[in-house]
Amino acid sequence: MTTNKETDLIKEIQAGNTHAFSELVDAYKNLVFTLASRMLGNREEAEEVSQDTFIKVFKSLSHFKGDSKFSTWVYRVTYNTCLDRIKQNNRNKTFVDIEHVKDVSLATMNNALDKIVKEERRALIKKSLNLLPGTDAGLLTLFYFEEQSLIEMEKTLNTPASTIKVQLFRARKKLAKILKENLEQEILQNYG
Question: Does pTM top 0.90 for this prediction?
Answer without folding.
Answer: no
